[in-house]
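To whoever is on call:

I kicked off a structure prediction for a single chain this morning and the downstream step that reads the tokens threw a length-mismatch warning. I double-checked the sequence; it's 98 residues and nothing unusual in it as far as I can see. Pasting both halves so you can look.
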Amino acid sequence: MATKEELEEQLRIARKDIEALAGMASDTARDQVANGADLAKAQLEHLSDETRALYDNARSQGAQLRSATEDHIRANPLATVGMSFAAGFVLAGLLGRK
């Protein structure tokens, strides 16, 4: 059977081992959080770049559509006025119903 001193020494060693394991676990968790934060930041930057590209593309297509619409209106002013009148007439009929 172990003596009191031997048991106390084993307990002291076990406490040191537990402290070392807790420190290692803390370091590992800290590293994983830092890596996760870095990964999230990189993904956010990637999404930001994609979003910016999508916005620029949509803006360019909108400008092209606007230009094409203006050209069509200039080329067909009477048809444009007629279509606007017809659309207004239909819309007024729909909104006038209760």
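Update from on-call: the warning came from a stale cache, not from the record. Cleared it. Sanity check on the structure: The mean pLDDT is 85.
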